Please model this.
Amino acid sequence: MNLRGVGVSPGIGHGPSYVLTVSVPEPPEGATYTGEAEQEKERAMTALTRVAGELEARGNQAGGEAEEILKAQALMAEDPGLVVKVRTLIDRGLAAPRAVFEAFTKYRDVLAGSGGYLGERAADLGDIRDRVIALLYGQAIPALPSRPAEPYVLVARDLAPADTALLSREHVVAFVTEEGGPTSHTAIMARAMGVPAVVACPGATGIPPGVQVMVDGTSGDVRVEPAESDVADAVGAATARQAVLASWTGPGATADGHPVPLLANVGSPADLDAAVAAGAEGVGLYRTEFLFLDRAEPPSAEEQRQAYDAALEAFPGGKVVVRTLDAGADKPLAFLPAPTEPNPALGERGLRTFRKFPEVMDAQLGALAEVAGAGLQVMAPMVATAEEAAWFARECREKGLADVGVMIEVPAAALRARDLLARVNFVSIGTNDLSQYAFGADRQLGAVSTLHDPWQPALLDLVAMAAQAAARVGKPCGVCGEAAADPALACVLAGLGVTSLSMAPSALAAVRAGLAAHTLEQCRTAAGAARAQPSAADARAAARVHLPGLGRLGL
Model:
């Protein structure tokens, strides 16, 4: 039995399958309660609070990317609007489990229909809902084995962050899910752990529990009950490939010496050690949401300074690009009132939220200014116009922050990159968001995952427009989306004129080797060939024809 999905975290993983099935029954429609409404509301509130506490505790224990994701979920569990809805439904006579089901399901369905950032959160709300209902029924949510007899391949319809937060490579050798996409939480967590993963794999949950499975996180192949010789061959090839990749050291550059600095995406100070160990030359994306997501009031100036200092101390000779608070939509903050919007993914989020609350902005920029060193760069998320870029640059420079940039995550910014660059010192392309806005396709929805293939020629066109605009004025244009983690695509991005690449630390070795095996001219030729194609698959194949070193490296 062979299955095929989308490979999102490279490598070979093999072991017995552990099929995670979560089945929380839907509370009966119209279910009522006996007793007082206030007691039933208290029961619901206690369950919501407990689930929020458990999610936050798991986040604190996990750290890194998982901490940011789980703390956002914890806030969602106690969202004021949802709490009011649950209480109102109980006042109307519905039992607590049914009230929770209806409130969360309605909101989840709205988010699923919105797409974009909000679409990502639909699965999260479903997970929170099921955990609360299970708690109210006294039912245990199926859990992963804490001390398995041997490492296993985790198979599921989808994986909630709470399921994967505390996993380690010691226990899990690969992930396979039926849903999700290249930028789903499962993909992000797998890459952060350095574990092979395949998502959007139809039929995965039909794999019998306990059978041997081999997962190729590069090709997307999932083989059930493979021959021992096939496993040995695949593992041997992967081991040899890793040894070759590890031999390539030093700064990122093409074979003819064209520099392409290789940086790390960092979700919190806990991720810095892995970035240093992997040979990152700095931080290309320092997400600061981890400071804000789990609290009822903003972090103190001292706490912010310590977090920023940690990154600068980890890379004293490199650059550290700090993204200012990216709040709103999927990242609600308890201390910032959220507006009621039909589609918050297209509303007040990112820089727009930052701009609306100047006291929060002033505090963050002030803390950054106090630790500013030669390598510190500050950039704003979700910038769409030259006016927004100019406003952010002015605010930063008034605080003494000289090296200011903006992220290009919406097509408008890519199309008019020259206007943005006239106001700032650099731009950084977030390919994950740029892809979902360009194609109108939810990052989390497996059904449209092919539209999130970073090889889509239209996406390459947008990257090329931004990079060329930056080159014309002699300013840097980096990429900090997941596209940078693909060694072949990294060469194409360098050929398009991108000046630095930032990725999960686990991807750095392969990208460094891939770049070093080709000249800049080869990269440019590969980029041109890719852009000339009509589809992502054709673009990938056309580029690889001009990148022969990848085959020799086993990439």
